[in-house]
Design brief:
25% of the residues lie in helices and 44% in strands. It has helices at 2-23, 96-108, and strands at residues 29-36, 39-40, 50-55, 60-65, 69-77, 80-88, 111-115, 118-123, 126-135. It is globular and about 35 Å long.
């Protein structure tokens, strides 16, 4: 009986470890912004979008904030997420207001959640930004 319990516990632990790793699969994905603080993001320039990608090996995040490229570091521990040393190009464009809101969200982010092909950036449990998964073309 003890052997069966031990096997069950080991299986559960392996499953939990494997599922937690897959839950934090931020890399290999292009994340396209859908909403900021519950409001759909509508860009003024056609085909402009706010996107980001994570590089787990370098702990770097890069992307496009509408018309300016951005880059920086990130730290992740479980579902905790903090962006740091962020920088961006400084071209002027009509979507500047959306970019400014997005950068402020990155500064405020303290956690994330992955669910059904969506990434949520959170602050104290509140959804600040919602992204949709788009596979990276190789």
């Amino acid at each position: 009986m003890k052997i069966i319990a031990l096997i069950c516990m080991t299986g559960c632990m392996l499953f939990a470890c494997r599922s937690s790793r897959s839950d934090v699969a931020l890399t290999g994905t292009k994340w396209v912004l859908e909403s900021l603080e519950g409001q759909k993001v509508e860009m003024k320039v056609a085909n402009n979008e706010i996107v980001m990608q994570f590089n787990d090996g370098e702990k770097r995040v890069t992307g496009m904030a509408g018309c300016n490229r951005f880059f920086g570091g990130y730290e992740m521990d479980g579902n905790k997420l903090k962006f740091s040393h962020m920088g961006a190009t400084r071209m002027t464009c009509p979507d500047r207001e959306a970019e400014a809101r997005f950068f402020k969200i990155l500064e405020s982010t303290d956690a994330f959640q992955l669910k059904d092909e969506h990434l949520s950036l959170l602050q104290k449990g509140k959804v600040l930004a919602l992204f949709k998964k788009k596979s990276v073309e190789k």
